[in-house]
């Protein structure tokens, strides 16, 4: 009788869903374009065309709508992040190059991937456009309906074929639950937007004021710069020093939040896909091991290849075990990188705000403007790709380290060779200790015999002035031949350390893994620096505060000028304030129309009868 997992795989191998997600993606462009047209029709164009332009016939409708501001958006950040998370499944299909809407030659694959990316972008464009639309009521209705369609279709796909051919039960659920969770959040978000917009439309709530150029956290940052720092502000706990310190005067832009959320979900999906592949390879290896066992049994374990076959089986078993065990540390490493990237972004952008560029290589301290603009478009996608490929490379490196530990320490103990293993380990450690000791001894001898004494007792080290020159030259001569051999080990250690650090930090786009002078070849780091400069030039709190002051002053001047034009037809005389003039006109109107007094709300301290008596007295005068 077949195992339950095998029966589940066979059952789902013939499972045919009524919904083809790839075909649905094509048809989803129809409502997507309809929503885009509706929002574009409602969007007013700021500058109307001339009459000789054909677009003049459209009036001031059909303005350009944008999904979100990738530079200066700090509000509604998590909604945008969850909307990015809803695209994770399609992003993974694009990453694996599994989604190709057209069949073209190999040399044209780049254009096909570009068309596929644009199609996916159009399919998910309404989520972002409805979240950022100024017309909250219409945007919330359209966004809710579109999210409901995607949610219903995804649920239908999962419910009809919940199991898979690799992991068995609930394989499809494991793959689609992040997107379902994001779509459910968007449904709740659009519903909340609709209720709030409806209350404003009915007059139950006040409409939100026009959004200011200056954000609250940016104003708080500028105020903190202008006030005298408190003595206790410099004190920090161990967690704030070593892990993270929350700053109320700083917020990450929506682009960074969306990138991190999408990177988390894509990393999870990548690990799931990797495990799918591992299960498939494990089944193939199980068939191969069965053939090896049948061969060993056929020769009654006396064949010449029997020891080799046993070693191959042991290698397969160890490799499978090490690969599974290293999934957790590799994934935790990449997750820690995602949090560390946020911390590095805040640290680097604050240094740029303070005018400190010393943390950047020399050639990156004044990047080209065009490269920076392109970099901010590349960064989010490249960061996700670096994390995914970095996870795979780190997983392979950790698996190799695990294999070395297994064959160097564990398997000798299992095969009753612990004494030989300890002997070899001791000899290796002793050899390395002697080499390192001789290197340290050279430094000690140089500091004790070949340098002149300190000039002052307060000096930290001796001056770079030679002493005992004859002994020094003999020291150099006799160590020359030894250092040739020592240099070979140093060269190999340099290569080994560079490979380990390079592969370990491959997912870190916030720092270059190239040597000094070759940083320009690191395209990921170039995108990081360009993105930092764009954010620095467009979201610097001091610059934004200055622009806010200029805009507010300009509006105040226009208001004062409008008030002055209102009274330009009046005769010249003593200048009075607008408030006094309004009160005088009100008094004159009430004196000429005493019945209006009874319809006005009485002031505090005076009743309507007393105020009427005052007006009658004034009229008699």
From TrEMBL:
UniProt GO cellular component terms: plasma membrane
Cross-referenced Pfam families: RBP_receptor (PF14752)
Name of the protein in question: Stimulated by retinoic acid gene 6 protein-like
Keywords, comma-separated and alphabetical: Cell membrane, Membrane, Receptor, Transmembrane, Transmembrane helix, Transport
Domain of life of the native organism: Eukaryota
GO MF assignments: retinol transmembrane transporter activity; signaling receptor activity
TM region(s), chain numbering: 24-42, 107-128, 135-153, 173-191, 260-281, 322-345, 386-409, 421-441, 479-506
InterPro entries: STRA6-like
Single biological process term from Gene Ontology: establishment of localization in cell
Lipid bilayer topology: Multi-pass membrane protein
Location in or out of the cell: Cell membrane
């Amino acid at each position: 009788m077949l195992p339950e997992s095998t029966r589940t795989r066979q059952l789902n191998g013939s499972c045919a869903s009524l919904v083809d997600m790839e075909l649905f993606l094509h048809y989803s462009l129809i409502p997507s374009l309809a929503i885009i047209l509706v929002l574009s029709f409602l969007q007013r164009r700021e500058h109307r065309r001339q009459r000789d332009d054909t677009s003049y016939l459209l009036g001031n409708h059909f303005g350009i709508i944008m999904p979100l501001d990738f530079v200066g958006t700090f509000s509604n950040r998590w909604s945008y992040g969850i909307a990015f998370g809803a695209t994770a499944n399609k992003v993974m299909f694009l990453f694996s190059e599994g989604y190709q809407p057209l069949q073209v030659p190999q040399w044209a694959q780049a254009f096909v991937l570009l068309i596929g990316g644009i199609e996916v972008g159009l399919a998910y464009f309404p989520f972002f456009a409805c979240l950022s639309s100024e017309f909250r009521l219409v945007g919330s209705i359209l966004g809710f309906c579109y999210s409901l369609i995607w949610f219903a279709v995804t649920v239908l796909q999962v419910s009809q074929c919940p199991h898979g051919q690799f992991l068995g039960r609930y394989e499809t659920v494991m793959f689609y639950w992040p997107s379902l969770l994001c779509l459910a959040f968007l449904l709740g978000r659009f519903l909340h937007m609709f209720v709030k917009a409806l209350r404003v439309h009915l007059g139950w709530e006040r409409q939100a004021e026009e959004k200011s150029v200056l954000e609250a956290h940016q104003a708080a940052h500028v105020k903190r710069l202008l006030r005298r720092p408190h003595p206790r502000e410099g004190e920090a706990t161990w967690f704030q020093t070593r892990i993270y310190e929350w700053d109320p005067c700083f917020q990450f832009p929506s682009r960074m939040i969306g990138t991190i959320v999408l990177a988390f979900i894509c990393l999870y999906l990548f690990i799931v896909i990797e495990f799918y592949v591992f299960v498939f390879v494990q089944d193939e290896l199980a068939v191969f091991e069965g053939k090896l066992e049948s061969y060993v049994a056929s020769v009654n374990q006396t064949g010449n290849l029997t020891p080799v076959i046993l070693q191959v089986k042991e290698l397969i078993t160890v490799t499978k075990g090490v690969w599974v065990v290293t999934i957790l540390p590799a994934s935790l490493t990449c997750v820690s990188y995602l949090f560390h990237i946020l911390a590095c972004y805040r640290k680097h952008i604050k240094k740029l705000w303070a005018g400190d560029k010393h943390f950047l290589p020399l050639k990156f301290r004044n990047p080209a403007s065009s490269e920076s603009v392109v970099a901010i478009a590349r960064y989010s996608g490249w960061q996700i790709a670096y994390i995914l490929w970095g996870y795979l490379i780190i997983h392979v490196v950790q698996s190799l380290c695990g294999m070395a530990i297994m064959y160097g320490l564990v398997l000798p103990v299992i095969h009753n060779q612990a004494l030989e293993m300890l002997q070899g380990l001791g000899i290796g450690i002793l050899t390395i200790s002697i080499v390192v000791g001789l290197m340290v001894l050279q430094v000690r001898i140089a500091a004790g015999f070949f340098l002149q004494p300190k000039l002052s007792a307060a000096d930290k080290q001796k001056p770079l002035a030679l002493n005992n020159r004859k002994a020094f030259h003999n020291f150099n001569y006799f160590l020359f031949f030894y250092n040739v051999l020592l240099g070979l080990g140093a060269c190999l250690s340099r290569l080994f350390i560079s490979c380990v650090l390079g592969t370990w930090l491959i997912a870190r786009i916030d720092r270059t893994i190239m040597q000094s002078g070759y940083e320009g070849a690191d395209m990921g780091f170039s995108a990081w620096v360009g993105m930092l400069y764009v954010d620095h030039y467009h979201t610097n709190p001091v610059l934004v505060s200055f622009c806010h002051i200029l805009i507010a002053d300009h509006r105040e001047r226009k208001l004062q000028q409008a008030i002055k034009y209102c009274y330009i037809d009046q005769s010249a005389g003593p200048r009075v304030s607008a408030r006094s003039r309004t009160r005088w006109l009100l008094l004159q109107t009430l004196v000429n129309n005493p019945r209006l007094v009874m319809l006005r709300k009485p002031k505090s301290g005076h009743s309507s009868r007393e105020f009427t008596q005052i007006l009658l007295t004034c009229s008699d005068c």
